[in-house]
Amino acid sequence: MFLSTPALAADRPSGDVSVPTPKSSVPKLERSAPQKGLRARPAIKAGANPQFDVDGDGIDETLVRLMDGTTGVWLSSESGAFSTYTIGTDDPSVQQKDIITPGDLDGTGGPDVLTLSTTGTLSLYHSAGATGTGYAVWSGSGWQIYNKVFAPGDVTGDGKPDLLARTYAGDLYLYAGTGSESSPFRGRVKVGGGWGAYDQLVGVGDMNKDGLGDVVARNTNGDLYLYAGTGSATAPLAGKVLLGGGWNTYNQIAAAYDWNGDGQNDLVARTTSGDLYFYLSDGAGRFLSRQKVGSGFNGIDLLVGSGANPRFGKTSLIGMDTKGTLFWYGVQNNGKLSAREQISDTGGWLGAKIAYASSLDPDGYADLLEVYDGVLYNNGSIASGWGKVNLFLGPGDLNDDGKGDLLARDSSGVLYLERGNGAGTGVSAVKIGSGWNAYDKIVGGGDFTGDGRTDIVARTPSGTLYLYRGTGNSSAPFASKVKIGDGWQQYNKLASPGDIDGDNRADLVAANSKGELFVYSSTGTGKFKARVKLGTGWNTYRDLY
Prior knowledge:
Layout: E1 63-66, E2 71-75, E3 81-84, E4 86-88, E5 98-103, E6 112-116, E7 122-126, E8 132-135, E9 138-140, E10 146-153, E11 162-167, E12 172-175, E13 189-192, E14 198-205, E15 214-219, E16 224-227, E17 241-244, E18 250-257, E19 266-271, E20 276-279, E21 291-294, E22 300-303, E23 316-321, E24 326-330, E25 341-342, E26 353-357, E27 367-372, E28 375-377, E29 381-383, E30 389-396, E31 405-410, E32 415-420, E33 427-433, E34 441-446, E35 455-459, E36 465-468, E37 482-485, E38 491-498, E39 507-512, E40 517-520, E41 532-535, E42 541-544
C-alpha cells in the first residue's frame, strides 16, 4: 500500500549528491545595424507589433533564458551587447514554464512581460528599462488548460495587444486586450479548431503593413503558413497562406519583432547545430532570403517568442557505473550530451534502487529519487509503503495540474500514478491498472507526441516498443497503447533525458551491450527519427536514468 505521509524524516540513505545545473555560454548576436528614419508610421496602430524595446532606441530586443535560468537581452543600443534582464518574480528559484512579450498592454508606453507558471498562473510585469522588470502587477490563474499561449500583437484592430491560447485538443482562443492593468484581457472567444496540426505557433506582429498582428504556423512536415490578422473580434485571423516548405530544418522559430526599424516584424530561426538565422519581412506577408546572425545559440533554453510548446522538468541524464558511482550528463540542444561529471562518491550507490525524475518542484531541474527499505526519498523521505515497487519513474506532469508526478509498478504488475504535491515532498497514489509487468522497461521524460502532455514508452522483453499518449486525466492518464516498432531488445539500456535536440519534445537514448549509445529524436507525432550514434563506451554503466 502506498502512503503519502513519510514514515521518517531522513536524508537519502545512499548519501547526498550534487547534481549540476546546466550551463551555457552567451553567443554573439551579429545582426546588422538598424535602419534609420523608418520608425515614424502614423498609419500603423500602436498595438500591431508586440514590441520589446527595453533600451528606448526604437529598435526591438530579443529576450532569452539560458540553461542556468539566467534571462537576458542583446541591447541594440550597445552594438548587440548581452545584458542580464531580471524579471521581478517573488521567488527567483522558481523557473517559469514560459515567458511572453506582448507589447504595451496597459497603454503606458513601455513593453510589458508575461510569465506563465507550470501550474497555470499568468502574471504581468512592467519593464523597468534595459535591466529588467518590477514586480507583478496582475496575475490570473487557470491557464494550464492550454499547451501554448502566445502574443500576436493587435489582431482585433483596436490598437491594444491581444493574446492567443491553444488547448491540448487544438482549439484556439482569443483573449482581446483591454488596455487596463488591473484586468488586461477580455473573456476568451473561440477562434477555431484543428490548430493541433502545428508544432510551432508564432505571434509575429505586423508583417504585412496593414496595422494588424499576424501569426505564422509550422506543421511537422516543415510547411510554414501565414494567418494574417483581420481586425475582427470574433474572427481575428484570415485563412492560411502557404509561405513555403523546409522549415523543419529549424528546432525553434521565434518572433524577432522589428529588428531593423522598417516598421514591420520579422522572424528568427535556430538550427539544431545552434546557428541563428534572421528572416526580414518583405512588407507583403512573406520573407526575404535568410541572413545568418550568429552561432552557438543551442545553449539557449528559451527564445522568448518561440513557437514551440514550452518544455519543463528534465534536460539531463544520469548513469550508474558498474561500481555504483553516479555520473551526470547535460543536454546540449543539438542532439548531443555534455561531458560527464561525477556527482557521487565512488561506489556509494551500488545496489541502490533509483530514478531520475522530471522536476517535482518549481525549480525546473530533475530530481534524483531512491527507494530504500520501502521508503521513497527525494532530499528527504516523501512516502512509505514502497517495499513491493520494482519499477518507478518520473516522466513529468500526468494530470494537467502543472506538478511533476511519478509512476510506480509493484511486483504483481499493478501501475500507480503518484501525484506530486508540487514541492517534491509528497505524493498521493491513484491505481492505473494491472498487467504492466508485461514490460521490462517503462521510460518517459516529457512530451513525445507534440501536444504538450507527458507521454511514456514501454518495451516488452521480446523487443516491441509501445507508446502511451498522456491524457491529463488522473484516473486514466494514458490512451490506448500504440505500437512504435520491434527490435528494441537489442538495447540493454533505455532512457529519456528529456529534450536533447532543442525542439522542446522529449527524446530517447538507447545503449547496446557493445557500449554504443544512440539517440532517437522525437518527430512530434509519437514516432522517432532514425537513430544517430552518440558514442561508445557506455557499457561502463549498469543503467541509465
